[in-house]
Amino acid sequence: MDTERRVYKISELNNLTKELLEGQFSDIWLEGEISNFKQHTSGHLYFALKDEVAQIQAVMFKWQASYLKFRPEDGLKVIVKGKVSLFVKAGKYQFVVSYIEPLGAGPLQVAFEQLKRKLEGEGLFNDEYKKELPLLVQKMVIVTSPTGAAVHDMLSIMERRFSNVHVLIYPVHVQGELAAGEIAAAISDINEHFTDIDVIIIGRGGGSLEDLWPFNEEVVARAIYKSRLPVISAVGHEVDYSIADFVSDLRAPTPSAAIELVIANKTELEERLSSLFARMVSSMEFMFGDYRNRYRRARENRVFRRPMEFCERFQQEADYYLERISTSVSHYVRLKDDYVRSVIGKLNALSPLNVLSRGYGITWKLKNNEVLRDTAMVNVGEKVKTRLHKGEIICEVLEN
Question: pLDDT for 36-58, tens place per residue?
Fold first, then answer.
């Protein structure tokens, strides 16, 4: 028996291979395209990295994946950092990823575009869900950092333009890990407990994409969408766009511009009121002048200067027309009376009763009231009834 022979167990070999690979390739960068991406229920990420001719399986564990600002997806070209390793149990060669960076665009920019596509697909940006701002704001809440320069600029503009508007500052972090959760919670809290608020402004001054990132978080976007109160997004400078801008009911290019959008300029209101008052006075003067002229013309009319003459004239005209009507009615009645008499005369001439007055009669059989037109219609002994000009008689037939 060969005493020099070394027999390895599979697990030993895999562990040794794992140590060799990790020792040789412990901290390297790879460039490739993600494919077959899958997020396991455990939170670990599994995918393949490939180039034009080859590929390698990769894994990123949950605790490292939780720091990603974007979601890896198939077709995304990336640069990854990690180590070459081996999954001992399956003997599978793999790359353990500790960091992922999109190729050509920063991770935050990729995360921004991904979330924008997702929320737009759900309809959160649709105009039909945008709420109208009040015509004149009486009370507002500004959700921002109370120590930032932006809030001081906003308050200064408001004091100068319309000092009698009530403003509440809801203090939150606007930068860092805690900021997104605080902003979302503030919007929900205001909607639930602040019943007399007209509008909510969320925002902060300018900064880098990282500084403004809390306003690109999904939790903030959904809080804005669910708000029953109008929300104005005022994040950064005019060139800065955030997810909050797309979901909000109105986007202000800067925090200072947000105040100018919701607070009516006092001078503008006074000028508008003065203009309306002047138009009202002019309209009233015109109306009074018109009524004055109409009164003057009415007063000079003969009807008012000699009212009895006017009444006498109409009384005479009324008598004239009444007489004409009476004459016409009398003539019409005479014509109709003559016509009726003529008709009556014709009816009397045709009436059977008129014939009877000349000595004729009408005879019926008593049995069935049948009018006799022939002697053959009656037998001897039958009774008949005869109608004379005046009265009726009942007779018995003695001979036929």
Answer: 999 998 989 999 998 888 989 99
From the list 94, 103, 82, 83, the residue with the least C-alpha distance to 31 is 103
Q: Transcribe 192-240 into DSSP letters.
A: HH-TT--EEEEEE----TTTTGGGGSHHHHHHHHH-SS-EEEEESSTT-
Distance, CA of 82 to CA of 22 (rounded, Å): 10
pLDDT tens per residue, range 296-350: 887 777 666 666 766 777 788 888 888 888 888 888 888 888 888 888 877 777 7
The span from the CA of 205 to the CA of 279, in Å, is: 43
β pairing state of 77-87 and 92-102: antiparallel
pTM of the shown model: 0.55
Residues of the chain with pLDDT > 90, as a percent, come to: 24
Q: What's the rounded Cα separation, in Å, for the pair 184 and 281?
A: 51
**Pairwise CA distance, residues 137 & 232, whole Å:** 13
| CA–CA separation, 16 and 22 (whole Å) | 10
CATH 2.40.50.140 placement within the chain: 10-104
The fourth-level CATH superfamily of domain 10-104 is Nucleic acid-binding proteins (2.40.50.140)
Query: Which ranges in the chain are annotated with CATH 3.40.50.261?
Result: 113-264
Q: Give the whole-angstrom CA distance, residue 274 versus residue 286.
A: 18
| CATH code of the domain made up of 113-264 | 3.40.50.261
Token pair of 10 as six digits: 């599979």
Three-class DSSP category at 46: strand
Q: Round to whole Å and give the CA distance between 67 and 9.
A: 38
In DSSP notation, 336-355 reads HHHHHHHHHHHHHHH-HHHH
Which residue stretches of the chain are H helix? 10-24, 62-65, 107-122, 149-161, 179-193, 218-226, 243-247, 255-262, 266-300, 302-305, 307-350, 352-356
Name the one residue in this structure whose structure tokens are 């976007």.
221
SS (H, E, C) 143-187: EECCCCHHHHHHHHHHHHHCCCCEEEEEECCCCCCCHHHHHHHHH
What CA–CA distance (Å, rounded) separates 317 from 320?
A: 5
Measured in degrees and rounded to the nearest 5, phi and psi for residue 336 equal: -65, -35
**The residue to which tokens 């198939």 are assigned:** 74
* Least confident segment among 109-113, 115-119, 124-128: 109-113
